[in-house]
Amino acid sequence: MPRDRKPSPQTRKVLAALAADPAAWRHGYDLARETGLASGSLYPILIRLADRRHLESRWEDGVDGRPPRHSYRLTSTGLAVATAAEARRLVPRTAEGRA
Amino acid sequence: MSRLHRAIARLIPEPHREWLLAHDSEGASIEGRAARLRWMLGALPIAGRAIASQAVHDPRSLLGGALMRTVVVTMSLLVAAVGTIVLGAYALMTEHPATMLPFALVPIVQGAFTLLFALGKLNKLGGIARLLELSGSTLALSVGAVGFAYGVVVNLTPMNVDPEYAPMAVSLLVAMHGLIALLAFAPTSAEPVGA
User: Fold this and answer.
1) Which CATH number covers residue A64?
2) Is B130 in CB contact (< 8 Å) with chain A?
3) Residue A25: which residues within 8 A CB-CB, separation 6 or more?
4) Vertex B83: Cα angle to B78 and B85 (nearest 5)
5) Which of chain B's residues have a Cβ under 8 Å away from the Cβ of A28?
6) Confidence band (pLDDT; 50, 70, 90) for B193?
7) pLDDT of the residue at B195
8) Which of A20, B45, B50, B179 has the fewest CB atoms within 10 Å distance of its CB?
9) A85 belongs to a structural domain
10) Structure confidence by residue, pLDDT tens digits, B65-123
């Protein structure tokens, strides 16, 4: 069972992008543009999130002669992780230390 | 599918192979050659992550697969090259110490045989080739491990003022090669390699 560590800033960016509209299916390239991450950083994060069942994926039929594309969205546990990560980011360090 | 993705995808077992296909499929949506190239180069870290994930969650899936075979081929070339270098050094020496010859010949034979076996060039020999490969690899692992341990003991002896590291390094390489060849070929069925 993979350990649930505190997400890295890059993972938080991906989680935030996906959590902005949890019902929407997103493509890798769109996520890369939105988060500013290179594909070599983005996809390992997506793999890790999928391994932890925080992400679901599906293949979509290609349009205009393009190949089928893979798309992603958060699962309910993924959304909870994203919300928790965002909340942790918003809590000032000093308040976190006092709690 | 791009050539880079095709080459890497062969090494990665399911289910992670799908991530490479997913990454590759996005390439068609990217405008500009430089941006597309940058995107495609991301396949290398993705492959690294996929293999690491596979190794953690399902290590058995990596045994006996194309990835292990590629590692074996690379190591076989390295082992044979090391043997050739040692043999060259032996030939250039003014004195020819008899103990040095096995350190040159064993890696050459081991590396060359395993290389041919991994590439499927010995398939016509049938089960004998597999038997020789597995027994040879077991022997290499055992002898290499003993040689390495002996080297450690000898070098740790206080009387020994001139430590020898080369035989230890060759022994370690031979042992590692034997181990990896066993991991690559022992779990597979008795079918010919590459079939």
Assistant:
1) 1.10.10.10
2) no
3) A58, A60, A71, A72, A73
4) 95
5) 22-23, 26
6) low
7) 46
8) A20
9) yes
10) 777 888 889 999 999 999 999 899 888 888 878 878 888 888 899 999 999 998 888 88
Query: Identity (one letter) of the amino acid at B164?
Result: E
Each residue of A13-66: pLDDT tens digit? Answer: 999 999 999 999 999 999 999 999 999 999 999 988 998 999 999 998 877 778
Which residue in B111, B108, B89, B110 sits closest to B100, CA to CA? B89
- Mean pLDDT, residues B149-170: 81
The pTM for the full model equals 0.61
Contacting B with CB below 8 Å, chain A residues are 2, 27-29, 32, 38-44, 46-48, 51, 57, 62, 66-70
Closest by CA position to B116, among listed B99, B124, B4? B124
C-alpha span between B30 and B39 (Å, rounded): 8
Domain boundaries, chain B: 3-61, 63-185
Looking at the domain assignment, is residue A20 inside a domain?
A: yes
CA distance B119 to B180: 15
Domain count, chain A: 1
A62 → chain B, closest CA residue: B25
Considering the domain boundaries, does residue A99 fall inside one?
no
CA distance B148 to B141: 10
Query: How many angstroms separate the CA atoms of B27 and B39, rounded?
Result: 7
Q: Whole-angstrom Cα distance, residue A71 to residue A77?
A: 18
Q: Nearest-CA distance from B25 to chain A in Å?
A: 6
Helix (H, G, I), strand (E, B) or coil at A54: coil
What's the gap in Å between the CA of B18 and the closest CA on chain A?
Answer: 9
